[in-house]
What we know:
The chain is mainly alpha-helical. Helix content is 85%, strand content 0%.
Amino acid sequence: xxxxxxxxxxxxxxxxxxxxxxxxxxxxxxxxxxxxxxxxxxxxxxxxxxxxxxxxxxxxxxxxxxxxxxxxxxxxxxxxxxxxxxxxxxxxxxxxxxxxxxxxxxxxxxxxxxxxxxxxxxxxxxxxxxxxxxxxxxxxxxxxxxxxxxxxxxxxxxxxxxxxxxxxxxxxxxxxxxxxxxxxxxxxxxxxxx
Length: 194
């Protein structure tokens, strides 16, 4: 149990940090990209208003507007610079501003990773305090791992349009495949080293 806990906690905190930093950097990059594109659109509206106005005409024509309605709509949109640029960002570039805070997202990712990752180690913590036979610890860790993966997958149903059972099974299948690959590599490399 001691070796499993040392390796498990080292992996847990390092991987959690990696996931958190990855989430933080990804979100920061998306927000920086959005801001750069917005500045470009602002510049184009200032320096090439005729061409940008034609793009607004094309956007609303594709949405089914024509004639006087199209002209009125284009006049309204282009009469307010912020609305004009917002329209270009969404309808031309498909970009929507992300109001989330990257540092907060990174911290939540880290906390969630550490909490979920601790559950499979729980049996080894218990075994460290009250020794359990290996015939109990490994199968219990295995079951706790898969129960946690299923639970996390099921919780996804709160934010995605899938039934909790389907979301849980989907995550369990993916997690199971990755566990099989990792375990298989361990068996092969363990046989080479030992």
